[in-house]
Amino acid sequence: MIFKMLKPSLFVVVACSLVLFSLAAGGFAQTPGTGQGDILIADFEGEDYGDWTAEGDAFGKGPARGTLPGQMPVSGFLGQGLVNSFFNGDGTTGKLTSPQFKIERKYINFLIGGGGHTDLTCINLLVDGKKVRSTTGPNLQGGGTEALDWDAWEVGEFRGQEARIEIVDAEKGGWGHINIDQIYQSDSKLALDDAARDFKIEKQFLHLPVKKGCRKVWLQVLLDGKFQQEFEIELADSNDVDFFATLEVERWKGKTITLKAERLPGGEKPLEKIVASDNYSDEPNLYKEKLRPQFHFSPLRGWTNDPNGMMYYDGEYHLFFQHNPFSVDWGNMSWGHAVSKDMLHWKELPDALLPDKLGTIFSGSGVVDKNNTSGFQIGKEKPLVVFYTSAGACVRPRVPYTQSIAYSNDRGRTWTKYEGNPVIPHIEGGNRDPKVFWYEPSKVWVMALYLDREDYALFSSKNLKNWEKICDITKLGCSECPDMFELAVDGDPNNKKWVFWGGDGNYLIGSFDGKTFQKELGPFRSKYGGNDYAAQTFSDIPEKDGRRIQIAWMQGGEYPGMPFNQQMSVPRVLTLRTTKSGVRLFMEPIEEVRGLSKGSVEGDAVQSGSESNIGLIGFKGDTIPMVGLCDLDLEFDTAAIPVGDRPAESFGVQLCGRRIEYNLAKKEISLDGIKAPLELDGGKLSLRILTDRTSIELFANGGIVQIAKCFVPADDQPDQPIKTFSNGGTVELQWELRMPRSVWK
Ligand code: FRU
Q1: What percent of the chain stands above pLDDT 90?
Q2: Which of 37, 349, 583, 659 is the least crowded, having the fewest Cβ atoms under 10 Å away?
Q3: E strands along 226-286, which residues?
């Protein structure tokens, strides 16, 4: 039976399945727990739980037969049945208690999987009614695996005593279930082992081999035996790796740290594959990778989602970002950090904030505390202060989401977490994503915070440490990642309005007096399509610049085979302008983007039916960084067509295999099928289109409509013509084409 279970994993991920293989090869000809001298406590093969007592609704009427509805595939259990508290999903809770038994062997072995919540999703050993051992499943974060693995308790000291086992599911949120099978007493231990390796730190980085599909292990960094850092990683044990993740170790230079891997598959020695270096792995190829965006920010290594902590200080723009340094998937959320002088050429710095006992580091914002209201300043530089969510749900033991702060006195190069964290306790649900700004008339700081469902709230503070709730904001029609800022309508400084913004780009227009946000208009949509999310604007842009500049996460693109995943949008300027329907928000790429191109090619045409080429986007060219890059202005005019011509019914442009089309009857623009309502402006449609290796951003009629789309370019594309077209008649056309240069050269 065990080999039936092993084969698929041996074939699929050879390097990673050694554990079970070696355990199996370790000598059991029969099912573990049935060997000579072993005492089976439960194998959960029956129709019901027999003499075990079930409480609550998490465990169903009897053992599950494998995977339950809505669950990722469960593997690694023995026989047909197992305890699986995913009965009716994660929301159910309960307890399963064994009858009393006598401890007669040195170990109790069991298979375990599911949630990793201390005391909440666990199996416990009770002796004399007291909990003496407790083990959780492995998973806390999104993703993870439903595979069960062996674990064991050493129980020799309790020999001869009466005991019970209880299986607990008291967690309703993510990974709120526990899976258990094949509990038995034995004199041999059947568990995954911890492993450790010491490193004398002389270099900047340790390169950790990562391979998708390998068992995720928790890796701890210890200094003199003291906890420093902890993260989950799919550590590869062979030379077949996807990429090398970078563990920044410079802060421990000259000292010896220990890397401790928990529950490593038997026989695997991935810690031996870790190497020290002063360079990134594959350094000559950095930013030249096939799918690397060339004028959009993406992390050197690992995963990113939301932009965070965006601020300007003394000649530098700071972009922090949700970062998983150890995988190309979401998890281990930390704040990556990059700086730039023009918001386009970025230099990535070491991660600024790493998870701690309050949690992983979720999204938030940053400000320059010019007047040192926080008292954090120690030298000449103004303190930079960042606000983030301590996402306690992803640490062991679990704590609720709270809001924390950290500060820097050296231009953002090093960060200190405030010792009084969290500065805002848990309020409700997954409250998160603090965005802070200065409100000059009352000389207070204001924080917009997402609470739960579609609810947000504002808080205020005099010193960035003590916060008081001032108002609620509801009915935005989206959740997460708020932003709030004031803009002059049509550039008129005497007519300013406040914008309240949510994660999916819905916004309200209203007024704000330092205490209450009064909605006047909205919610409206600022953007269309699913590849633009969690946008945030820079704080502290100098007054003489005066722009409100935003960057979004280009959510959801694919970057197969790359050592990184996801990218940011191009920085864009937000303005409020009066339209026929009232005041609306517009967004356009920052002017600096034009400066990336050396020159331009322009032209005009009468587009009448079919297609015409207006240029080429290099795909097979020898200058690889140019692949797929283009910055195009197009203006279609339906009013100025030659006398007697029939006006076009629809028209548009095709580039990089993407089709952009305007339909006059429907008053609708579309990009690859993503549709947005749009009126022509005096009979005209103006389009600004930016394409990078894996993305296209469209700004229509001054940016009242924005659509972003990510794509994977086909392999070996020939140079691609940019083709304009019209259907059913004529449209006048003017165009200007620029070719941006890579920002990484
Ligand atoms: C939005 C979001 C935030 C959260 C962060 C976690 O994409 O879910 O609400 O802080 O991502 O990575």
Answers
A1: 78
A2: 37
A3: 226-234, 243-248, 256-264, 275-277
Q: Which phi and psi angles does 8 have, rounded to 5°?
A: -60, -40
Pocket of ligand 1 (CB under 6 A): 305-306, 322, 333, 362-363, 389, 432-433, 480-481, 503, 533-534
Atom of ligand 1 nearest to the CA of 450: 9
Task: Tell me if 195 sits within 8 A of 271, measured CB to CB.
Answer: yes
CA 322 to ligand 1: nearest atom: 12
Tell how strand 658-663 and strand 730-740 pair up: unpaired
| Contacts of 500 by beta carbon, 8 Å cutoff, 6+ apart | 448, 456, 473, 476, 482, 483, 484, 507, 508, 510, 517, 519
Range with lowest mean pLDDT among 187-196, 299-308, 424-433: 187-196
Whether the Cβ atoms of residue 742 and residue 288 lie closer than 8 Å to each other: no
Checking phi first, is residue 38 left (phi over 0); if not, alpha (psi -120 to 50) or beta? Answer: beta
pLDDT digits (tens, 9 = 90+) for 692-742: 999 999 999 999 999 999 999 876 666 677 888 999 889 998 989 898 999
Answer whether 68's CB lies under 8 Å from 86's CB.
Answer: yes
pTM of the model: 0.87
The answer for residues whose C-beta is within 8 angstroms of residue 510's C-beta and 6 or more apart is 497, 498, 500, 517, 518, 519, 520, 521, 522
* Site of tokens 């089976």: 40
User: Of 141, 335, 363, which is best to mutate to test ligand 1, by the most ligand atoms within 8 angstroms of its C-beta?
Assistant: 363
> Token pair of 312, please?
């300007």
CA pair distance 431, 449, nearest whole angstrom: 7
Question: Edge-to-edge strand order for the sheet containing 668-671?
Answer: 611-617, 720-727, 650-655, 658-663, 668-671, 674-677
Bridge partners of 233, per DSSP, are 217
Residue 66 to residues 28, 40, 81: CA-CA distances in angstroms?
23, 20, 6
* Residue reference for tokens 């914008």: 499
Q: Which residue do the tokens 């065990």 mark?
A: 2
On whether the CB atoms of residues 694 and 711 are closer than 8 A, the answer is: yes
Report the separation in Å between the CA atom of 363 and the middle of ligand 1, taken as the mean of its atom positions: 6
Radius of gyration of the chain (CA): 29
CB atoms within 10 A of CB 488: 15
Residue written as token pair 């392999």: 715
Atom number in ligand 1 closest to CA 363: 10
Mutate to test the pocket of ligand 1, among 140, 303, 305 (most ligand atoms within 8 A of CB): 305
Q: What DSSP letter does each residue of 118-150 carry, written as one string?
A: TTTEEEEEEETTEEEEEEE-SB-SSS---B-EE
